[in-house]
Amino acid sequence: MGNFGSRLKKARKKTGITQKDLSSRLGIAQSTIANYENNTRFPGETILREISDYLNTSIDYLMGMEETADKQVKATVELTQEHRDQFINKLIGGKGEEAKEIAKSLHVGGMRLTEIITDLFIPTLYRLGTMWEKEEITVAQEHYSTGIIASLTEFLSEVEPTQRDKKHVALFMTPGDEEHTLSLRFVSQFFKEAGWRIIFLGRSIPLWDLKEVIKKGQVNLVVLSVFSTRGLNSAEYLIEALKSQGGKRQPRVLIGGRGIDSQETAERIGADIYLDQLEGLAHRMREIEDMIN
Questions:
Q1: How many angstroms separate the CA atoms of 111 and 120, rounded?
Q2: Better-predicted residue by pLDDT, 77 or 34
């Protein structure tokens, strides 16, 4: 049946993760991982749960209580309005770590990050925006809350195992001097969950450098997010520059965001795909992949 150490080592190697990778993700020394695998030390409850999540392996398997290593994820926690209220109250109250624990508990309970994004993060951001407009919260509270959601998204994306079973590569960035990258991060998670390789640039980079990244990364799709008229103008220039280079491996362009309002506008500036709402992206993934193929 095997002991904890041997099962941990087997699960780690199955996912192609080194002891150094695992120790870095857990925030502990590599020697500690080695001690776990040699059965000279045993992790506490929190670390054990994080190992299970990162290796996509059930705790029961690691403990020798079942023989199948792959975790069968089933949602054991249902997101309620109480979760949403507690989450936003922790955020505006400056209790970021407690807010993080709410989201992490939902993730550990079986919710995919894409579900947390659509059912918790996006509704929270809408509520924060409304509260700011009504002057119920300060700019500092809104920025702090958004920062916590951004860091949570990055963390949960890293610990959530996904199968990169497709050859498609998507690059994500904002054009010009656009600064809003959180929605772009949300979109990238849907592609990651669908098996795509992700290149997340965030803020814009010089056009020459971008072309090099696209060429070396064999990028199939460039995803742009715009929030202003100025950003839309920058996107139009960028799309024209990318398409003017020609070649058989010219990437398609997907565009979305508050700065663009229709399929007609997307077509006018040269984009191939218009994303009007994040919630429908999962259902459009086949359409996008067919267009690239």
A1: 11
A2: 34
